[in-house]
Amino acid sequence: MNHNSTKQHWEEIYQTKDTARGVSWYQDIPKTSINLILSTGVDKNANIIDVGGGDSMLVDKLLELGFKNIFILDISAKALQKAKTRLGEKAKSVAWIKADILEFSTESRFDVWHDRAAFHFLTKEEDIVRYLEIAGKLIKPSGYLIISTFSMSGPKKCSGLDITQYSEDSIKKTFRKDFNHIKSFEEIHTTPFNTKQNFLFNLFKRK
Q1: Which domain holds residue 104?
Q2: Among 36, 39, 144, 145, which one is least packed by beta carbons within 10 Å?
């Protein structure tokens, strides 16, 4: 799927579905992501980017916790607009970035890079390599990478698209060039339709 068709796919998803009830990845409270971010010990002025953050509730919780430099990146303008509308005035304190992560470039550098269920949509080797290059460049030395994917016992598709499943070993090998592995663990996510998805959460530190 090329850039334009990928963008169109996600615009249609967010145009036609209610995020809280219509998409499988929705969480009222992203507890695991918050706990992993807090476990890094970064201060409230840290630059935190949520890759594929779209209409996620993570930004709401980060703002409630007092984090001041939050960047939300998504390929879908509609997803970002939904989040902005929900946040109202608070949206003005967030940096909103409409971009394909594989084409993302910025002068900013990040203390925490969070990606819940965006990376696993990359199924081509060249796209995975490109993602690694961008993350390796934009995450500060000693910064943190928090990334979650479907595990080897999780779904093989999501929102009609193929995904890449990962084990702890394969995710460690994928990111070993620029990152030291801290921990990995699996967690069951219950979707709004009451189905179960097995995720692999991972925490790395930039070398």
Answers
A1: 3-17+30-206
A2: 39
> pLDDT for 76-91, tens place per residue?
999 999 999 999 999 9
In this prediction the pTM is: 0.90
- Could you tell me the sign of the dihedral formed by the alpha carbons of 60, 33, 99, 205, in that order? positive
Asked whether residue 179 is domain-assigned, the answer is: yes
Decide if 181 is inside a domain: yes
Whichever domain contains 97, its CATH number is 3.40.50.150
**Close Cβ partners of 2 (under 8 Å, ≥ 6 residues apart):** none
Model confidence pLDDT, tens digit, residues 6-18: 667 556 655 665 5
Residue with tokens 């594929």: 52
The per-residue b/e assignment along 109-128, b for 16 or more CB within 10 angstroms, e otherwise, is ebbbbbbbbbbbbbeeeeee
Number of domains in the chain: 1
